[in-house]
Amino acid sequence: MTFKFRRASRRQIVIDAIDNANASLSDIDRARKYAKMSRSPYRFFRGTNHLFWADVWNDWRSYLFGGLLDSQTWLQGDAHVYNHGAYGDDRQGMHYGMDDFDDAVIADYQYDLWRHTASMVLDAEENADLSPAKTKRAIRHFLTSYLDTLAQTAEGASPDDIHVAYEEKPLSRFMKKVEDKRGVSRQLGKWLVEDANGGPVFDLESDKLGGVSAAQRSQIVKALEKEYPATLHEAGEHQRANFRVLDVARRLNAGTGSLGLDRFYALVESMDDDIDTYVLLDIKQQTRPPAYDCMTTREKRRWREAFKHEAHRHFEAFYALSQHPDGYLGWLSLGDNWFSVRRRSPYKKDFPTHKINGFKDYRALTTQWGRILAREHIRGAASLRPDDPGYFHRAVTARIGADREAFKNVVADFAFTYAECVRRDYRAFIEERGTPVAGS
To answer: Which InterPro entries would you find in this protein's record (predicted)?
Structure first.
């Protein structure tokens, strides 16, 4: 008797994983998400973070330059080029960095580097029109910047002293454009109209907003007024809790990976003269990050013990990673689901890499990305061990040692290999579930 062991094909594994990850979505939301994922391999990559984590969680390469308890930190969890962008702080200052921590997780630092560099391969091909050789050079600049920033901090510098060079191209042009074309008044003009009494309400004619039922509105208003204020980090000092809810709307068709999760906008009127009169709060359902499904039973139990719920996990990650955390950051519950609450920044804008002006500008941008990610990892590690905030960058710097070139080669090779895997997965998805687009 001959025994034949049959394994599922990569194609079937990918399609089954995508179907399972999106099984809870409505037919309409699933169709919208799949349509977005069909636009390009990079869009597909952004919508399938769960595939990345399933692929890399036990990858042997993580032990070459990490795999230690001390090489773990808070990760962004969905590191990619378009998760960098402009945002504002509470005093209407503008910054550039990562501002999305929905998938944040505590794990080895290399996972963020791997995902980010794979996204650079896909983005450089799709948007920046760079050759593979120039893309590899850009990745090496990104990694050099990351390592240099770790080494600088290992010598005693504070992560708060790690700054993004806004005065250099191409960020200087981008930030100036954001300053000129965005702000509180323009944000309110985009999302609001006047009601019959001349007061501000959400513009439900917008294809990005939808109405809520009276019962749902009442539930959200109650949670904002009763539950949310107690979760604010510095509610007493900044009086964020002193507001009145004016209107609520459902946010439609936002994001790629998170598309289909419940999301609402609330318009609130601040009672504090030191704060903008009208503030838009972004209320977003938080679920477990994709990495959670890869953990062992023991790791999952420790995760649940560490965080009350996923909105709490998002809150802790945001304050750990961000140099300019949102003063409105908190949470609330609606039924059995938990939601993060934060201000919708009037300066939020992704850097349009399709407008990049050649390799020189792309290389300059990658240098800033490396500094930003290193700063996040350093801050995230310090929050995990405040009694020894330098453990992470000391451990990683020592682990890599004099093998910086070998480290950069391993990461760059992974980026190109995984990007090709994404392209193959994308083609399978298009044939099985997607909506083909011109030129795909």
So the answer is: DUF2252
Are the CB atoms for 320 and 134 separated by under 8 Å? no
Residue 319 burial (10 A CB sphere; 0-12, 13-18, 19+)? middle
> 39: helix, coil or strand?
coil
Residue 142 CA to residue 257 CA, distance in Å, equals 25
Q: What are the structure tokens assigned to 165, written together?
A: 């060079």
The answer to whether 259 touches 320, Cβ cutoff 8 Å, is no
pTM of the model: 0.93
Closest alpha carbon to 295 in 147, 22, 108, 87? 108
Consecutive 10-residue averages of pLDDT for the chain (440 residues):
70 95 91 93 96 97 96 97 87 83 97 98 94 97 96 77 82 91 91 92 95 96 95 65 92 80 94 77 96 96 96 97 89 96 92 90 94 96 94 94 97 98 97 64
Whole-angstrom Cα distance, residue 62 to residue 70? 13
d(C-alpha 124, C-alpha 129), whole Å:
6
Measured from the Cβ of residue 66, the count of other Cβ atoms closer than 10 Å reads 21
CB 339 within 8 A of CB 262: yes
